[in-house]
Design goal:
By secondary structure, this protein is an alpha+beta fold. About 40% of the residues lie in helices and about 15% in strands. The chain has helices at about 10-20, 30-35, 45-50, 80-90, 95-100, and strands at about 1-5, 45, 60, 105-110. Strands 2-1-4-3 form a four-stranded mixed beta sheet. α1 packs across α2. It is globular, with a radius of gyration of 15 Å.
Length: about 110
């Protein structure tokens, strides 16, 4: 598993740490590196993952929604607060499941040599 760059969580982090801080030019790479898990965390697009696995004969990639994408579970301590508590109540889970079912944070990869 590696992190999926174009995920619902990536969009939420961009809203909070880029647009919400009046810095819409900040890249997703920068936001993931500073605000997801430990410093320097990276996330990859499907194309970038396929390039990393170019030497394999068969590669399957899936990016299913998980509990974090749907805000169904507790978040890390540094993300807790009143705003996130309100967002969790209003988070459009049915909309995300319906229209963005392949935009999960976890990119699951099966590859054969």
């Amino acid at each position: 598993m590696i992190y999926h760059k174009w995920s619902v969580i990536g969009f939420m982090l961009w809203l909070r740490y880029s647009l919400g801080c009046f810095r819409p030019w900040r890249s997703l790479n920068s936001i993931y590196a500073r605000h997801l898990e430990s410093p320097g965390t990276k996330a990859y697009s499907r194309q970038e993952a396929l390039i990393m696995f170019a030497d394999f004969t068969h590669v399957e990639i899936s990016t299913p929604l998980g509990h974090a994408d749907l805000l169904n579970s507790a978040v890390g301590q540094r993300h807790r607060g009143l705003v996130l508590s309100l967002v969790r109540l209003l988070w459009p889970r049915w909309f995300i499941r319906t229209f963005f079912p392949k935009r999960g944070l976890s990119m699951l990869i099966t590859a054969y040599k």
